[in-house]
Structure formats: C-alpha cells, structure tokens
Design goal:
By secondary structure, the protein is of the alpha/beta class. Helices cover about 40% and strands about 15% of the residues. It has a 7-stranded parallel sheet with strand order 3-2-1-4-5-6-10, sandwiched between helices. Strands 7-9-11 form a 3-stranded mixed sheet. Bound molecules: NADP nicotinamide-adenine-dinucleotide phosphate.
Length: about 350
Amino acid sequence: MAISIDKSKPVLVTGATGYVAGWLVKRLLDEGVTVHAAVRNPDKTEKIQHLDEIASNSPGEIKYFKADLLQEGSYAEAMKDCELVYHTASPFFTDVKDPQKQLIDPAVKGTSNVLEQANKTESVKRVVVTSSCAAIYTDASECKSYPNGELTEEIWNKTASLKYQPYSYSKTLAEQKAWDIAGTQNRWDLVCINPSFVMGPALNPKVATSESVTILKQMGDGTFKQGAPKMSVGVVDVRDLGEAHFRAGYTPEANGRNIASAHNTNFFEMGKILHGKFGNDYALPSKAAPKWLIWLMGPMINKALTRRFVSNNIGHDWKANNTKIKNELGMQFRPLNETMQDAFQALIDAKVV
Ligand code: NAP
C-alpha cells in the first residue's frame, strides 16, 4: 500500500543519540520536520549537544523524550501525534559478557515495545526499522551459496546464534519480531533498512558507542599496524544511510526489506585508503595481515574475531545486491574514498585519534 506522510506532523526517532540516527535526525531537521528524539537520558548533555547544534541551524525543531527499550510503554509520549516512527535504537558492540542481556533483550524486547506502542497510537501510518545485513548473513563465506554469489532481501540469517555472533542473532530476531507485529494489523506499514557495515563521519565522535567508530579508531591507534585483515564486508556511508532512512519514510511506495550497501570491500582496502591520506601522521595499516596471524591474534584484538569467524570471513568474497534501494528509493552512494577519509577526518577534528 502507498502511504503518504504529512511533513507537518512530528516524527519519532528512537536511539536519536546514535551514530546512524544522528544523520537521519539532521536530514529531518534540515527538511523542517519536528523530531521527537527518544533518548535514554536527556540530561546527559554531552550525548545530545551535536543534535541541539544542528537544530539551532535548521528549520526543524527537536524535542527530547526519555525512553528505554526495556521499559514497556516508555515510548508512548514520544510517539504521540506521529505518523512516522523510525526505530533505530539497538545496541551495536561486540565486546559483550552476557549477549542475552546486553544484545538480544534490548534488540528484541525493544522492537516489541516500540512496535506494540505503534499499535496503540492511532496516528501512526509507517514504521521504519533499522535492521541490518546481519539479519541476512553471518559469514562472508555464505555468499557463494546464493545465486550470483550475492546476498538479497529474500535471504534470512540462519547461522547466527546466542553463542556465535550474537549481535547478528539479535538483529535477525529483532527484524523477525518486527515483521510478526506488523503482520497483526493493517493501519501502518513496515519498511526495513538493512545496512552493511556503516562508515563515514560521526557527528558525535567523542561519545560515539557504535562498533563502526570503535573499529575506525582501532585503524588509527596502531591496533592494525602490523597489517589489517582482508576481512570481507559491505560498506555504506552514514550520510547516505541517513538519506535512505529519510526516503524510506517519505516515499509512499517504499516497502519490505532494503539492502543499504554501496561497496564490496575488506578492512585492508579500507585501511589502505586511510594510509594513503593520513599515513604520515597515524599508525594506519599499510599491508594485509596474513589470515593465520589474525586467526591466532584475532580473539585478543576483538572478542568477535573468533577463529571460526576468521576462517569464514577472511579471504572470502562479500557481495550484496543493492538494486532495490537504487530503483525504488532512488539511492546513489558516495565513493569509498570519500567515506573513509571523511570518517577519519572527523576523528582528527574531534581529537579522538
Ligand atoms: P550506536 O551509535 O551505538 O547507537 C545505538 C543507539 O541505541 C544509541 O542511541 C543507544 O542509546 C540506543 N540504545 C541502546 N540500548 C538502549 C536501550 N536499552 N534503551 C534505549 N536506547 C538504547 O550504534 P549505531 O551504529 O548508530 O547503530 C544504530 C542502529 O543501526 C542499530 O539498530 C544497529 O543495529 C544498526 N546498524 C548499524 C550498523 C553499523 O555498522 N553501525 C550496520 C547495520 C545496522 P545511548 O546513546 O543511550 O547508548
């Protein structure tokens, strides 16, 4: 069904403090929209300062609402009068002790909490959920088992679990939950955005919690000085992703899942771009680390770099089909050089590397 959203109505963004959400909030404010920003703690000024600055230079308005994914009913006030709801909030980090508590519960219960609230809020016409390519696959080695060796919107992740890549599991369960809840009613429609690994400049580099920013910082702090892994990933620019979310909300015919991925690359290629521009001043990777070395050292660098993960993701081609988002939402993507260089420059400007 085609859904038309009135730009004079407020729009809810959950997890507005986040790396991805920041650029969406900016896009909405630039358009003159009133943003209901749901945040865990509106009193933590350092987490929302960048949004206030953007709002003060744009035609839109921002209003903060205190809400927590795990507190039932806590999005009610923020959702009042909204026709459009963006659900971006979900933890994205891999250094976890208790994956059920730290990843799965906030992702899945949070999705229920927000979408059940949409069921109770008569004004809601569309919900856009930030899912992930992680809800499509766990390991790059899976790509070759699909036609043309590429991931598509039809594919669901069947390999992640509580024990193996629990972040991917949390995104898979959360998106499934979203489709289940959407299917119980017909007042609002659900559109999912499925980004690959997000890169590009953070609006809040000093307080960013996203794994994207953590890995970018690691590229600059010497972690990969002996070489970066040829770990295959897709990459999308955070600014393009903000635009994709905006279009998913306001394009009447937007529908279903939408892979948001611009480049099929790997961490070594990404590091090499940075080394080319900033290599004189920072300990950026200039060579590829051999697979055996990452296999040995990986678990010490990052908990998610288990030996199984290294075996299944280094030296395998990663490929996703982004035709749908280009054709249906008219998306175009920035070159990878621009994404990587702007991302690192933002860390330099904020003095966090
Ligand atoms: P992020 O900067 O860490 O943002 C996560 C957001 O979720 C923060 O605003 C955080 O709020 C909020 N949040 C976490 N737990 C919460 C809770 N219990 N209650 C309320 N809010 C909570 O990470 P991000 O990279 O922007 O991720 C945003 C979304 O994009 C997530 O859904 C993620 O799965 C998805 N995604 C990210 C990538 C990527 O490469 N970055 C790729 C695909 C999909 P606080 O500020 O209060 O912690």
